[in-house]
Specification:
Length: about 425
């Protein structure tokens, strides 16, 4: 009798060009080392909880208080009190056109990025996304049948988008532009004139603006966050935000998207969003009860980002120490929780930044993220998270400096040996 063999399950071809390397092979290597008993200094993911940055107690208590009321499904768009609080928050920022029915609550912004793109894109549609980007945007566009086209941000100009490059990449297939403001991974905060230029391009080319503003409350120095919808009231704009960063509760999965712009132009799209929201029944109900308290209560994030505040001090220290490493330069972040330092190619001619990060992990037991994981085109950057304590940041930079110092000395010895004709040791 012939033995039956099950056909192997194959992954979908839709995943062929999808990457999310922040949780890819490098993280797996780190986990393997930790399982072997090695202690890894993690400077790779933007999760405040492991570093003692916990959610405000009043928010946790309020969510617990509503647990018995959260056992059933809620409205597919979200509970009314939470959507009302979000709408009122935007109205206090001058966005009077955003009402309760314009809000969709999801299991974090991540779910909503996927849902809003699925409701919008046809196969082959192009979406402009910043480089560097938060890679979920590129992955979600691809999974929705679209094509991600990356416009460059200018490191020499505060990491603001190169608007000439943005316009040069608009084609007949372009349907939308993504803004990540404040930006992950660079920490750039866009001034009004940059956002106005995006709005003008959208008007001229009939485009939709997707504005990821999850870090809107995390700004430093004199940086001021400006909502894209505030300078583009006549355009379809999707504004994404949530509780995960400013309120230090990423595990609760409470995010939202606000749809603004001309009603006639967005009516069919809104219906599509309601359909997709209904298909997943509803978002996590207990976390939704934290939204009203979060937006209406004391904004403790202000204490962390002001002079003397923990995030502000850690940003300043990390930037200073990284800039002191020979061949490393770092633009100070104006917002968010990250730095995106550059390795001078003349000093560190790495051709594979993923291998650089793996070598750093194995040699120094420190985990950072390589720049090309954020669709930066050259292997000369890495992302450094500023959430750990001052002591951990000092130790992390010391290890990076030590690793790069060994590399520099080897490169110098090889160069001298090549010039003299004597083999390097």
């Amino acid at each position: 009798m012939k033995k039956w063999t099950m056909r192997p399950m194959q992954h979908s071809s839709k995943l062929q060009n999808v990457r999310y390397e922040l949780r890819g092979p490098i993280l797996h290597a780190a986990k393997k080392m930790e399982a072997e008993g090695q202690r890894i200094l993690r400077m790779n993911l933007g999760d405040p909880a492991p570093f003692g940055l916990e959610a405000p107690e009043s928010i946790v208590v309020d969510m617990i208080h509503h647990l018995r009321d959260s056992q059933g499904y809620c409205d597919s768009k979200g509970i009314f009190s939470a959507r009302t609080a979000i709408s009122q928050y935007y109205q206090t920022k001058g966005l009077m056109q955003i009402g309760v029915e314009d809000i969709f609550i999801g299991n974090g912004v991540s779910e909503l990025i996927s849902m809003t793109l699925q409701a919008f894109l046809e196969n082959g549609d192009e979406v402009l996304i910043p480089a560097p980007d938060y890679p979920l945007w590129t992955a979600s566009v691809t999974l929705s049948g679209g094509t991600a086209v990356h416009y460059l941000c200018d490191e020499t100009n505060n990491w603001w988008p190169d608007m000439a490059d943005v316009e040069a990449k608009i084609t007949q297939q372009t349907r939308a532009i993504v803004l990540i403001n404040p930006n992950n991974p660079t920490g750039a905060v866009y001034p009004r004139h940059i956002i106005e230029q995006f709005a003008e391009l959208a008007r001229r080319h009939d485009l939709v603006l997707f504005s990821d503003e999850i870090y809107e409350k995390i700004t430093y120095d004199d940086a001021v966050h400006i909502h894209t919808a505030a300078v583009a009231e006549d355009l379809p704009v999707l504004t994404f935000s949530g509780l995960s960063k400013a309120y230090r509760m990423p595990g609760y999965r409470a995010g939202w998207v606000a749809v603004s712009g001309p009603r006639a132009a967005t009516a069919a799209y809104r219906e599509s969003l309601e359909l997709l929201a209904s298909l997943r029944l509803c978002a996590n109900v207990p976390a939704q009860h934290a939204i009203q308290t979060s937006l209406g209560g004391y904004q403790s994030i202000g204490d962390l980002v002001k002079p003397g505040g923990r995030l502000r001090e850690q940003r300043d220290l990390a930037c200073k120490l990284l800039n002191e490493i020979p061949g490393v330069s770092c633009v100070p972040a104006a917002g968010a929780m990250y730095l995106f330092p550059k390795l001078d190619p003349a000093v560190y001619p790495f051709t594979n930044d993923e291998q650089f990060v793996l070598d750093l992990l194995e040699d120094q037991k420190i985990l950072v993220s390589h720049g090309t994981a954020f669709h930066w085109p050259a292997p000369d950057h890495f992302r450094f998270v500023i959430l750990p304590s001052v002591a951990e940041i000092e130790e992390a930079v010391r290890r990076i400096s030590s690793f790069l110092g060994v590399y520099r000395r080897k490169a110098e010895a090889q160069a001298l040996a090549g010039a003299s004709g004597i083999p390097a040791p």
